[in-house]
Amino acid sequence: MLSNYETWYKKANSGDTITYYDKGYLARQRFFDNNLRDIANYFMRLAEAKKVNLFQKRLAYGSPSKDPVFQYIAQKI
What is the pTM of this model? Predict the structure, then answer.
């Protein structure tokens, strides 16, 4: 699945966005899903290289027994 995001980055124009996760709390979920970890790491490397900006949008609030849900978005610079 990482290859889909690599292809998006190669074909995307400046300003284009992609949602790379929107089903939970990435900070926790990445430890349980190696594919998700690889995707998150890929976008972090792009952000560190100043090739994308990363954003979060809260979709649901959490509680002591439930993680919040965020939408994780990358925008090509």
Answer: 0.90
